[in-house]
Amino acid sequence: MTYAIDRLILTPDDIDLSRSPLAGHLPKSVLGETYVLGAFNPGLTRLDNGNLLLLVRIAEALKNPIFDGHVHAIRWDEGRYVLDAWPLDLVDTADPRVFKLRGGGWKIIALTSLSWLLPVELKPDGLEVVAMHYDKAVAPQDSLQCYGIEDPRISKVEGRFLMTSCSVSPERHSTTLYSSPNGLDWTFEDIVLDHQNKDMLIFEGKVGGEYWAQTRPLGYVYFAYPPGSEWRAGPSINLATSKDALYWKPHRKPGIRPHSATVATARMGGGTPPILTPEGWLSLWHGVEPKELVGIYRTYWSLLDKDDPACVVRTDHAPLIEASPDLTRPIEHQMYLRDVVFTTGIADAGDHYIVASGEADLACRITHIPKSVFAAN
């Protein structure tokens, strides 16, 4: 599907790394020089002044990670950033985003970049940058975030801004919660979900007096549905509820599940925080079709019952947003992934929605989607 307004709003070249939280910490030589591997997967919200706010994941990587027979990774350590060295004969560097450590009885990886979050203020239509708030960047501040903070999702519930993110470390891969009175000044609250429960999205409003959220636990074993079932076994979008947004209880009913009618959603997870419409909660989510190393990421949508979000009112197997080679052609020289769009934020704009996505794990994309797209046929 094509849209009249669909463009990249932020690319790696727009980021000033002299103002990065990492600036001045790494060795003052070519070995410590960094670049922006990606400026992508932004949280999105509307500020009280009417402007939009992107909270952009900046993946900052070493320009020369391999030297002296080792591959190096950046790590936060007690208020400073250091380099760790791994012997090349112990690692697999096929994926540009991570390297795998060989040996051991399970998958162990290290990241080729460290991520921090940059608030970027846009005009109300989302089509022009107003300010880049480097002084309000969200960076690691605890050992549970020593490999970075990834993929923010912002919800505004009863006047309070809530942001979930993935905090990465050898201790655990956890979901962490931040809060803000204004969408710009963020306070770390705590871990809210434990190891490898990704894509947590807090609904933009309460249901039955409680906070609701979509979650996506990861695992290596899934039990089969019966033969002939309309559902396919694998990662799905689950639900959880909370009295205070800190302590969450998994909901017993399943949320959005991969459908057996299509392999395009063989793997799936949340995208935008569900937003309330007259017909129910609108949820944009990602489905992944298996292909080569990473797969093909597309954006899909579902409407959930306003009183029982475990009930899907309407959905569509056709993708809402797909990766766009036309948009990324000007930054072709920086591309390292194909066929990836990851939608992460939504804002109401009257007769349309403003939707923010990460494009190719590289840039931020803004798409205006008419509300008529989600109407019943």
The second-level CATH architecture is 5 Propeller
Biggest β-sheet, characterized? 5 strands, antiparallel
Structural class: mainly beta
Strand residue content? over 45%
Backbone shape: globular
According to CATH, the homologous superfamily is Glycosyl hydrolase domain, family 43
Runs in which pLDDT lies below 50 for 5 or more consecutive residues are: none
Number of domains: 1
Rg estimate, integer Å: 20 Å
CATH topology: Tachylectin-2, Chain A
Secondary-structure element order, as H and E?
A: EEEEEEEEEEEEEEEEEEEEEEEEHEEE
The total strand number stands at 27
Write the layout of secondary structure elements.
Layout: E1 6-10, E2 34-46, E3 52-62, E4 66-67, E5 70-77, E6 80-87, E7 91-92, E8 98-101, E9 109-111, E10 113-122, E11 129-132, E12 149-157, E13 160-168, E14 173-180, E15 187-193, E16 197-202, E17 211-217, E18 238-242, E19 248-250, E20 267-270, E21 275-277, E22 280-289, E23 296-304, E24 312-315, H1 325-328, E25 341-348, E26 352-359, E27 363-370
Antiparallel strand pairs: 1-27, 2-3, 3-10, 4-5, 5-6, 7-8, 8-9, 10-11, 12-13, 13-14, 14-15, 16-17, 17-18, 18-19, 20-22, 21-22, 22-23, 23-24, 25-26, 26-27
